[in-house]
Amino acid sequence: QLGNTAKKLNMKIYLVGGIVRDIILGRKNLDIDILVEGDAIKLAYEFAKENGFVFHKFEEFMTAQIKTKDNIKLDFATARKEIYEYPGAYPKVEKATLREDLFRRDFTINTLAIDITEENFGILLDYFYGYQDIRNKKIRVLHELSFIEDPIRIFRALRFAGRFGFKLGSHTEKLLKVAIQQNFIKVAPEGRINLELNLTFNEENVIEILFLMDEYKLLNHLIKYFVLNDFRKKVLEKIRDNILYFELIFNKKADKSIIYLLGLLYHLPLEIATEFLEKYYFEKAFKSFEEFYYLKDKINENLKNSEIYEYIKGITLETKIFLISYLPENLSKRILDILNKEKEKFITGKDLISLGLKPSPKFSKIQTEIFKKYLDNEIKDKKQALEYIKQK
Ligand code: ATP
Predict the structure, then answer these.
(1) 85 or 304: which carries more pLDDT confidence?
(2) Residue 65 CB partners (closer than 8 Å, separation 6+)
(3) Which of 17, 143, 162, 257 could disulfide-pair with 208, CB 3.0 to 4.6 Å?
(4) Which residues contact 273 (CB under 8 A, 6 or more apart)?
(5) Of ligand 1's atoms, which has the minimum distance to the CA of residue 150?
């Protein structure tokens, strides 16, 4: 049907980018990107009008988006050239052919297109050997200056490599190393680096990607005094496991970026960590950093469970998950045990009412007091707890 609308308007349309790559890889991808040789806004508008879909346009970028009735999103872009006025800048755009549009892309694996006009429907167009690179598991740039033109591609190269288990092509690897060594990321806008890091922290293979970023010294260039040793690598791995554990056991979804930022920065003085967070707009992590730096030397073996509980009960979910990943195993286990017990809701308001008490703000004080005794094994079970309250 879309092919029909395009034909009426005498335009050519192609499925492009990540979705084509992922079709070949057999991976799920719900981002449908349609490239138009012609006017993408006009085509999307006509198609939306014919079908009663929701339509939005972005004139400045020559793009449009429509949402179908069953909530499928289609992104339309006018085939265009991009001109970077200086390395790292947001590019200026101009109309172009399909091939020119594909040439401005980051890696060959992202340059494949599938023709979806009526007469050629389903034909794969591969101008830059993208298919071969997908099969050979290779990340390759399209030209020598790619990383310098847009240093964000350094991050993207390692993100795709880590995500798919691909290797950098040997020439691409050399270009990437030079770009990092020459500190080209310095000219990338901090906002774009923030976006890239957020995407990385939310990737399934986040650890593989962070290790690659370390291996290629990208993290060193990004974070002052950064060193990733074996212990810190283990902490990062434990973060991944604990995020999953909290989702499954406590049904709680944490902000992964904050926890991985703690994992990367915790060995640095708070001032240096804060400087990084400010520079790359991660203010959302401030609270957890303050909590962790305050707590890290306070929680130790010699504390009673109730004392540990007192320290952790009000802190953010992200700090909790990080603490559990960072502290020695026996302490982490104790904290997890405390949190599991807290989840059980040992003594409820109903229990107190059943003892003849009138609901009042005092309830939560009593509940905390009893819960602490339970944590310290001074009270063994609910029966004993109710007995204790009655006596008091
Ligand atoms: P993902 O699965 O992460 O969404 P994607 O390939 O769809 O992967 P997007 O970030 O959505 O990635 O970008 C869409 C397309 O735009 C990419 O396939 C790529 O060709 C191109 N692109 C994105 N960022 C850049 C960049 N910095 N330089 C060149 N091309 C880029």
Answers:
(1) 304
(2) 44, 55, 56, 58, 73, 74, 75, 76
(3) 162
(4) 265, 266, 289
(5) 27
pLDDT confidence bin for 180, thresholds 50/70/90: very high
* Nearest-angstrom CA–CA distance, 124 and 121: 9
Pocket of ligand 1 (CB under 6 A): 17-18, 29, 31, 105-106, 110, 150, 152-153, 156
Distances (CA, A) of 4 to 10, 51, 116, 125: 10, 13, 10, 20
81 CA distance to ligand 1 middle (Å): 15
Q: Pull the structure tokens for residue 269.
A: 């003085």
pLDDT digits (tens, 9 = 90+) for 114-125: 999 988 999 999
Decide if 13 contacts 98 (C-beta within 8 A): no
End-to-end CA distance of the chain: 76
Pocket test of ligand 1: the residue of 20, 105, 196 to mutate, having most ligand atoms within 8 Å of its CB, is: 105
As a whole number, mean pLDDT of residues 143-153 equals 95
Choose among 122, 36, 103, 110: nearest CA to 76. 36
